[in-house]
């Protein structure tokens, strides 16, 4: 089912190309449902992206249309990656951008895991 706010899935997006092995990534984790790799433009000492293997444009699309197994597999991978990165003791932030107001750049659902320093509270005052 289509979701509002973003165009349909585009197989030419950069994360689809990473999933197909057409461009490299610095992989930190992979399983049946998810791939995790370092962000190319890190915003914190640890900045990793976790993406599902399925063709979902955003969290809206993923939460509405992914199977229970895909949803469970993806979120278990997020927790596992953060743990394997050694972030549980100090803490970390998980963030996803959806659509225009959130400035989503890549139209393949992904979450950011930030850590490795104190991250401050929530959002900047304005942008
Ligand atoms: P968003 O605004 O949530 O869509 O964020 C997209 C993120 O993808 C940004 O933090 C980019 O730095 C990151 N990114 C874009 N291209 C690549 C790439 N080839 N490898 C790793 N990260 C990327």
Please name the defining characteristics of this protein.
alpha+beta, HIT family, subunit A, 5-stranded antiparallel beta sheet, 5 strands, 24% helix, binds adenosine monophosphate
Report the principal-axis shape.
Answer: globular
N→C terminal distance: 32 Å
Strand fraction equals: 15-25%
CATH architecture label name of the domain at 33-115: 2-Layer Sandwich
Total strands = 5
CATH class categorisation of the domain at 33-115: Alpha Beta
Across the major sheet, the strand order is 1-2-3-5-4
Present as ligands are: adenosine monophosphate
Structural class: alpha+beta
Q: Any idea of the CATH topology of the domain at 33-115?
A: HIT family, subunit A
Secondary-structure element sequence? HEEEHHEE
Walk me through this protein's architecture:
The structure is a single chain. The chain is of the alpha+beta class. It has a domain at 33-115: 2-Layer Sandwich (HIT family, subunit A), CATH 3.30.428.10. It is 24% helix and 20% strand. It has three helices and five strands, in the order H-E-E-E-H-H-E-E. The chain has helices at 14-19, 59-65, 68-84; strands at residues 27-30, 34-38, 46-52, 92-95, 111-115. A five-stranded antiparallel β-sheet has the order 1-2-3-5-4, covered by helices on one side. Bound molecules: adenosine monophosphate (AMP). Adenosine monophosphate binds at residues 14, 25, 39-41, 49, 97, 103-106.
Short description:
This protein has 3 helices and 5 strands. It is α+β, with helices and mostly antiparallel strands.
């Amino acid at each position: 089912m289509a979701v509002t706010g973003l165009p349909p899935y585009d197989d030419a997006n950069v994360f689809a190309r990473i999933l197909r092995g057409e461009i490299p990534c610095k992989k930190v984790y992979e399983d049946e449902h998810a791939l995790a790799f370092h962000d190319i433009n890190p915003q914190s000492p640890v900045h990793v992206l976790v993406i599902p293997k399925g063709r979902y444009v955003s969290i809206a699309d993923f939460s509405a249309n992914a199977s229970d197994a895909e949803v469970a597999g993806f979120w278990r991978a997020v927790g596992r990656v953060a743990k394997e990165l050694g972030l549980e003791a100090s803490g970390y932030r998980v963030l996803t951008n959806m659509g225009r107001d959130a400035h989503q750049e890549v139209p393949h659902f992904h979450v950011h895991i930030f850590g490795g320093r104190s991250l401050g509270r929530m959002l900047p005052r304005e942008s």
